[in-house]
Design goal:
The chain has about 100 residues and is mainly alpha-helical. About 55% of the residues lie in helices and about 10% in strands. It is built from two helices and two strands, in the order ααββ. Strands 1-2 form a two-stranded antiparallel ribbon. The radius of gyration is 29 Å and the shape is elongated. Keywords: Transcription, Transcription regulation.
C-alpha cells in the first residue's frame, strides 16, 4: 500500500506567523494600557479592560467639568450675569440667585 504523505497547505506557516504577530500586537497594547491606566499594573487582562472602560468614563466626566468651569470663567471675565442654584423653575424661593459679575 502506498504511504500517504500529509500535505501542508502553503498558508499553514503563514497562519501561524500571522497569529503570532497578532498576539504580539495585543501584548503591546495590553502593556500600554497597563502603563496608562492608574492601578492597572498587575491585574489580569479581563479586569484591565473593565478598569480601562471605567477610567475613560471618569476622564470624560472630568473633561465635561473642565469645559463647564472654563465657560463659567469666560462669562465671569466678560462681566456676564450668572444664575446660581435652582433647577430651571423658580417659584419665589431663594433657590436661585442672580448675580451681576461685572468688574469694578
Amino acid at each position: 500500500m502506498e504511504e500517504r504523505r500529509r500535505r501542508r497547505s502553503p498558508c499553514h506557516g503563514g497562519r501561524r506567523r500571522r497569529r503570532r504577530a497578532v498576539e504580539m500586537a495585543l501584548g503591546r497594547k495590553v502593556r500600554e494600557l497597563r502603563r496608562l491606566v492608574p492601578g492597572a499594573a498587575a491585574m489580569p487582562a479581563e479586569r484591565l479592560l473593565l478598569r480601562t472602560a471605567d477610567y475613560i468614563v471618569r476622564l470624560r466626566a472630568k473633561v465635561e467639568l473642565l469645559r463647564a468651569v472654563s465657560e463659567l470663567i469666560a462669562v465671569t471675565n466678560h462681566g456676564g450675569t450668572i444664575i446660581v442654584g435652582g433647577g430651571g423653575h423658580h417659584d419665589g424661593d431663594d433657590d436661585a440667585h442672580t448675580s451681576n459679575l461685572s468688574s469694578s
